[in-house]
Write a structure and sequence with these properties.
Blueprint: H1 3-12, H2 15-23, H3 25-50, H4 57-65, H5 69-77, H6 79-85, H7 98-103, H8 141-151
């Protein structure tokens, strides 16, 4: 809020409202601190659940600040439901960044567990059924072939041989 806007708001307030504002300023400050604490909890949980890199922190925090307490609670509570409702493709899930999840209010969506468009997500050894070269730390194709041989993948398709 700009100084001129704040001044106009204060000038429009009655004497009683100004006194109330002064007496309750600590509660107002605590509410802002609570928002920050809640946001940090949301930020951590969102990225733990989705596996996304932590980007656009300030933009997400801005959208968080615009939410009501009820919406903030739902945003935090519905992260897992949102994530599990996304379809799974061979390339992964189309997960939104935290800021977009908040801005679009996806936490208010109706959630159903999505059905997969691909093969089961993991083999019996816990490794994915399919991989791509960009998912593995290799420097060239011969390293990719070696990795696939050691981990039972076809280097041409990335499909599991197990």
């Amino acid at each position: 809020m700009k100084n001129k806007e704040a001044k106009a708001i204060l000038e429009a307030m009655s004497k009683e409202e100004l006194v109330d504002l002064c007496l309750n300023y600590r509660d107002i400050i605590n509410e802002f601190d609570e928002k920050d604490t809640d946001f940090e909890e949301f930020w951590k949980k969102y990225h733990e659940v989705t596996g996304l890199k932590k980007t656009d922190y300030q933009a997400a925090k801005k959208h968080w600040g615009r939410l009501t307490k009820v919406h903030r609670k739902l945003a935090l509570e519905n992260i897992e439901k949102y994530f599990l409702s996304l379809p799974t493709y061979n390339s992964g899930k189309p997960v939104k960044k935290a800021r977009t999840y908040l801005a679009d209010k996806n936490f208010l969506d109706e959630f159903e567990v999505a059905k997969s468009d691909s093969k089961p997500a993991s083999r019996t050894d816990g490794k994915p059924k399919r991989i791509s070269i960009d998912q593995v730390a290799v420097n060239n194709y011969s390293e990719w072939e070696q990795y696939c041989k050691e981990n039972n993948y076809d280097p041409q398709s990335g499909e599991s041989l197990i």
